User: Fold this.
Amino acid sequence: MIQESEHKWNVVSEASNGLDALKLLEAHKPDLILTDIRMPAMDGLEFVSHIRRKHPDTIVIILSGFKSFDYAQAAIKLGVMDYLVKPCTEEDVREVLGRASEKFMANRPSGAEEQAAEQDIAAEDKQSAVIQKAIAYVNLHYADDCRMTEVAAHVHLNPSYFSVLFKKVTGESFTVFVTKYRMEKALHLLRSTDMKVFEIASATGFEEPNYFTNVFRQRYAMSPKEYRKRHRE
Assistant:
């Protein structure tokens, strides 16, 4: 699939375990590496750590069957370009190879440091755009389940990677963000309407009124009824 794609990547070698991969890395010095997480002799994250120490500019994509949040977080810290979860489609692979080509062309020695900086900015802008799209979805669907898996699917990311990226861009977890947004909507309804507390709970995405009240009390140190009374006097 890689050699048949329109992005002109050539497969120079393949390895069945991490130790063999290290030897081939030094022999071929590839521009792009696709690796799994679980491999004999040395796992993918340890392999990527070796790559980063000796070949920091090598583009790395992880293609794995593991959806673990910890794996995705560790991969981002190691500078992995993307983390694809198997099974994935040919379209997913072609798309990530296309982005790898763009990154490679931007980072070629003929490009100045400014070009590399522009590429980094472009990557950050793309990440921000993805998260803004997710936030816009939350704004429309906060009264529904609005689960992380649903929002991640909406922006075409696997949930583990989305979770890490969301916190990286916004500074808070997806769950904290959604809860805070729902609470802000609840405050507005308590101040501006005569809706009952259980109606407000339902309107802001809480199935159980008691749970809504507990979350509200934890956040504001008072019940919804007490808040309404204070802000209507």
Remarks:
- The chain has a mean pLDDT of 86.
- The CA atoms of residues 153 and 203 lie 24 Å apart.
- The chain has three domains: 18-108, 125-171, 176-230.
